[in-house]
Amino acid sequence: MKNITKIILILLLVVCNVNAQQEKGIFGSSNWLNNWTEFKPNTIDYGDANQILAGSISVNTKLLKRNIYVLQGDVYVTNNAVLTIEPGTKIIGDFESKGALIITKGATLIADGLETDPIVFTSNTSSKKAGDWGGIIILGDAPINKFGNYSSLNLELDPNFNNYGGTNSISSSGIIRYVRIEFAGKRIKGGNNFSGLLLAGLGSKTIVENVMVSYCGGNSFDIFGGELNMSKMVSLRSKKDDFKFTQGAQCRIDNSLAIRSSYVSSDSDSRCVEVLGYERKEETDFSKKLTVVTATNLTMVNDSENLKADIQAGLIKSAVYVGENASLIFKKSVISGFNPAVLLDNKIEINDKNLKKLQFEAMYFNNCNGNIFTEYNTNNEDLENWYGQSVFFNVYSKGNNSETFIDFSNDKKPDYRLQLSKITASK
């Protein structure tokens, strides 16, 4: 009887351990990337536009699946209007005029696609590339940490329609769900780029789920302030950051994916996740909230055929960067193939107070050239010892991508769930 009890206890421990492993990185009982994502968007012909969107949309408007729309120049939704987009609708960003869609403060976007019928924003060129058109900007009235609680975007937009911020942390700017944004991120004067999806001052009732940004010339996702929950985000081969959080953003992001390429990133500051307390210190009101990001079940992977050579050539940098006066809680996530996995601003003093704001728990660090470093410091022994404690349940491995993920090399329908002993990473 005692032996049977021991066997049962051992089996329970094994099952619990397997479940703990399964939860790292993106998860699901099936591959949730199927149906609505597209990993080879430059091979698809969406057809020619038969409707033009230009200027301002100041009354409630609905875009229909049966039409194909072209964004000519900067298109503003104003006057508290609601822009509704049917599932399956295609919107083409015009290359010549660098079209963009801007949802101004008080207006609403209802882009609620379906898993089997996503809404697609893409380029109208025959040879699509990053930066062909602008992107999508949604401006809200939730708090930011700049003086006065308000700010404006420096993206050559109409100054009457580019402000954001306020005091309504639970406001809604609409729904963006099952949406693909391809080849956005136009370049403007001064070297800045549009983002694929820029969310500035959005309240917690805004729904942002199942959004894929592919081949963006700027950041895939930019979060300026506000209080957002984001789930099942996908960033594919962005030139700059995959996810950037700043200006006091209070954000939770879970079950999301970033895929980087050694030969696509534009500069050394391009990372999967960048968490900054503010944009400019002199414009920041330190009596307000600084940036806090809680990231759970993220998978960040660098797609490199020769990781060692690409690191030596300086093509691969860190996956995660944390700036001064910012907090990051990272749990159950996978970081595979970076140099190093995490980099902390050299202004962050390594002490108990700051380490409480920088949590890395139940992480899976795979094939990284070092794990957690302070910027400009090649000695990370203290950080390795701290985060390597058993209480944090962090795991370290040296597997290649094909061994680490279920179906990494599938061009059309890849599966980036973690594979441990051929067990699907599901929850």
TrEMBL record:
Signal peptide positions on this chain: 1-20
Key words of the record: Signal
Protein name: T9SS C-terminal target domain-containing protein
